[in-house]
Amino acid sequence: MAARFAQPTFWVLALLFACGLALRVGFVHTTKLAEPIHSDALQYLAYASNLVDRGVYSKDTTAPPTPDSFRAPGYPMLVALSLWIAADDGVGTDNAAYRFLLNVQAVLGALMVPLTFALGRRFLPTWAAVVAAGAVALSPHLVSLTFYVLTETLYGLLALAGVTAFTIALEKRRVAWFAGSGLLLSGAFLTNSTALPLPLIFAALALTLCGFTRGSSDWRRVATHLAVFIAVFFTLPAAWSVRNAVNVPDGARTGSDRAFSTMTHGIYPGWVHEDPRFRYYAYRDDPRAKEIRSSLGSFARILWERVRERPARYLSWFLVEKPYYGWSWNILQGEGDVYVYLTKASLYRANALADATRRTMKLLHPLVLIATCLGLPLCLVGLRSLRGSALLVATPVLLAALVVYYTAVFVVFAPWPRYSIPLRPELYLFAMWSALAVARRVADFAGARPAT
Length: 452
Hints:
Elements: H1 2-6, H2 8-30, E1 32-33, H3 40-54, H4 74-86, H5 96-120, H6 126-138, H7 140-145, H8 152-172, H9 175-191, H10 198-213, H11 216-233, H12 235-247, H13 255-265, H14 289-292, H15 296-309, H16 311-327, E2 343-345, H17 347-350, H18 352-381, H19 395-412, H20 424-448
Antiparallel strand pairs: 1-2
Helix pairs in contact: 2-5, 2-6, 3-4, 4-5, 5-6, 5-8, 6-20, 8-9, 9-11, 9-12, 10-11, 10-19, 15-16, 16-19, 18-19, 18-20, 19-20
């Protein structure tokens, strides 16, 4: 332990964690929003208040509240815990519970810094893992999201912890690590339902890569551990489904309703129906919006009619623009840039050094996306080359699968860039791996060319 403290990497990582925490705490204590509690945040606070005061999971603001399953319960439970611990009445922005929640989120966000290093160190050089951890510490999106009563910070931490635990499990081959990873990803699912397929994707990739690298007996051992991983993961989703079947009355809005609504919002090329004044809210300008939302059949029929009228435009929208928007810098809705809601004061406006980190990360973001795009085909081309290698080499493949899966999510649903912010650590790590892989290939090619 003493030897670890003596290593320069430990102190660099400690400094990055301190910087990340300082930025997040500073943002929490200097930023002021025009209307902090509205829209999604208002629903999360309503869920938490009903849990604490009435023991009912409901977004209703009138009594008696009706149980529903419109939003996953993970984040409202964190908000409820804050209300309970702070023992403060109400949900206003000046009370102790609200401030306690934001400070908790600042700590949770800062914890992504060492976790990013822990994951990166398993497949990157130490310096590259440190660079990725530094990017997480300074990421203005990850910093700003700690200030909002929204799921992104909690989901980002749980997803990153789950992926990290899974890679450790693949290396150590211990069932406890597989079970722990399943539990963490299960918590991620209860925070954001899009995590549901991730364990199945990871398990399938692990079995495939294990088949490339090990004999049949080892394959069976890993398969057994992966079965535990899947079983543990599905315990919480199963419990949530049972609760919904028993407790939620017929006709109550569900998570499926919310998913369908998000899907309908993503069908407008360039976020516009006809009137540019309704950009990002095109459904308000669409006279058939109500019909589109009436059923999946109506949605498919009307979308197909519009695709037939402008096939090239819709092809570009779904295959190029939506993936780009999903991973782009500008949050689009609200104030934009790194702000989800309209902002009256901000750390990045009050502190020149903090704003310099924001501007630097903004300049680097296109390079991160370019590196990621270059790395995806490299993973596919190099998959067979993993034969005979350690199974741990699968880590960049897992990260690539994560990027591809969420890109597909953006193609199907509305690709609000806010939804990709929790995945910034994985994105930075994969971009670092990709940049190094491209550099190696260029060096190999240059070395193989005959001297002239």
